[in-house]
Design goal:
The protein has about 325 residues and is of the alpha/beta class. It has 10 helices and 15 strands. The protein starts with 9 loop residues before the first strand and ends with a helix.
Length: about 325
């Protein structure tokens, strides 16, 4: 069975697993080892860590969080966690200064991007190193996720990206998988042995990537049933509520809470529209002295969407338009 002993022990100079992960893997408890990966951030205690697309379950070690929106049908968790400095913005136009973070975590967010080249180049610009995790391309092909725009494979140190022309573009393979293999027994198997079904990449200085089909437009609209499924989500069970409670406790125990409270976001931010670092902070907004773009501060959260033209059709188009409309009133 695929295990940590078949994974690369070191990747880009970083250990791919903690001692506790390896311990549980040796005991055959891969599921436990996998869950512990969220506590594994192989950097010094003084490193400044950004998490992109943190959503409702941020990594404890992240000092600063970035998310595209406060509410989203693409988020598994019901609400956005705001327990440390948070910025609203796009990964494809990160509102942070060049090399302002020592390490960037991008876990289960790259596959949502309609512009993966900009996404990855922005990670390299803002961070010195980082960690990327996505579903593996094979698993995404046979078991596609409604919100995922990409299939991501790792070949050595190379990330190979396939832009999905629709969310379920290989219907024959998916139908065969669902008919022959997808049952409770297989789902339990994936849960017990998760490593082969996910892509994990540690990088330093640069990310080697290849887009197989750059000509494909992956900005297709989400299927209507996606919104219906989100609206019809049942209330959390007692077991799920207990899991959320354990997560909160672990975040509190393993986060740099005292340090995070004193982080000055103003020293890290730059204008996502023109790229200048000449932002002026007022009580309720940031203003770029170079291009005069205005970014509101809502409930203490900087909203740093780039001011793009009306033809913009990139990630989070709806939020971009809503934000621009609110600034004009």
């Amino acid at each position: 069975m695929t295990d940590l002993h078949k994974d690369q022990n070191i990747m880009a100079g970083f250990p791919t697993a903690s001692q506790s992960m390896r311990f549980f893997c040796r005991l055959g408890m891969e599921k436990v080892a996998w869950s512990l990966r969220r506590l594994h951030c192989p950097v010094d205690s003084d490193a400044l860590v950004l998490e992109v697309g943190a959503g409702g379950n941020p990594y404890p070690r992240a000092n600063v969080l970035l998310d595209g929106y406060e509410e989203s049908v693409e988020r598994i968790e019901s609400s956005l966690v705001i327990d440390r400095p948070l910025v609203l913005g796009f990964a494809e136009k990160l509102p942070f200064k060049t090399k302002s973070f020592d390490f960037i975590i991008a876990s289960h967010v790259l596959e949502h991007s309609t512009d993966p080249e900009s996404f990855l180049r922005e990670l390299m610009r803002v961070g010195k190193a980082g960690y990327i995790e996505t579903p593996d391309a094979f698993f995404e092909r046979i078991n596609p996720f409604t919100y995922h725009r990409l299939e991501v494979a790792q070949i050595g140190s190379l990330i190979r990206l396939f832009k999905k022309p629709s969310w379920r573009h290989d219907g024959f393979i998916v139908d065969e998988y669902e008919r022959q293999l997808k049952d409770n027994q297989f789902i339990k198997f994936v849960s017990k042995h998760p490593y082969p079904f996910y892509m994990r990449l540690f990088w330093e200085d640069r990310i080697c990537f290849e887009i197989v089909n750059p000509e494909v437009d992956s900005t297709w609209a989400l299927p209507i049933e996606s919104y219906a499924q989100t609206a019809a989500m049942p209330k959390p069970t007692l077991r799920l509520r207990l899991r959320y409670f354990v997560r909160r406790v672990l975040r509190w125990l393993f986060s740099q809470n005292r340090r995070n409270r004193h982080i000055d976001l103003s020293s890290l931010l730059q204008c996502p529209t023109c790229g200048a670092d000449s932002l002026q902070k007022d009580t309720d907004r940031f203003t770029c002295r170079t291009c005069q773009a205005i970014y509101p501060i809502r409930n203490g959260i900087p909203v740093m969407y780039p001011h793009l033209d009306s033809n913009y059709n990139g990630p989070n188009r709806k939020d971009y338009v809503n934000d621009r409309n609110s600034q004009n009133h």
